[in-house]
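I am still getting used to backbone structure tokens and would like to learn alongside you. To get us started, please write out a protein record for me. Start from the sequence, derive the backbone structure tokens from it, and show both lines together. Once you have written the record down, we can walk along the chain together:
***
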Amino acid sequence: MLRYLPLMILLGVVIYALIDCATTKKEDAKHLPKIAWLILIVLFPLLGSIGWLLAGRNRRRPAGGGSGGGGGAGGGRRTTWVAPDDNPEFLKKLGDENNTKGDENGDDGDDEGDDDGKRDGDPRTK
């Protein structure tokens, strides 16, 4: 079984390079046209795959130093996934939904606590 390991690794690298090359925008291919890279990967699997992975594609970093923040050409919109608790748009929408629920029920949306400013059942306030 161990003698097949190099073949399996080569096959994995070739498949990865083919998929990566096929899904890359043609503007991001460097040195050769995208179709030439695909032909190289198919005809010369080891050299073509390694060549594509090392030199064939523009590897762009996300705007803002790679931290996944905003910025970039999105007009102030985030271009990467943001957790809901960090997304101000989601939090605003959630707050709006809570306010409309409170208005429909006839209360102010504050279900917890009395008018003393403390939450009922909160062990830190006792």
Residues 44 and 64 are 38 Å apart (CA to CA). Helices lie at 5-23, 34-43, 45-56, 88-105.
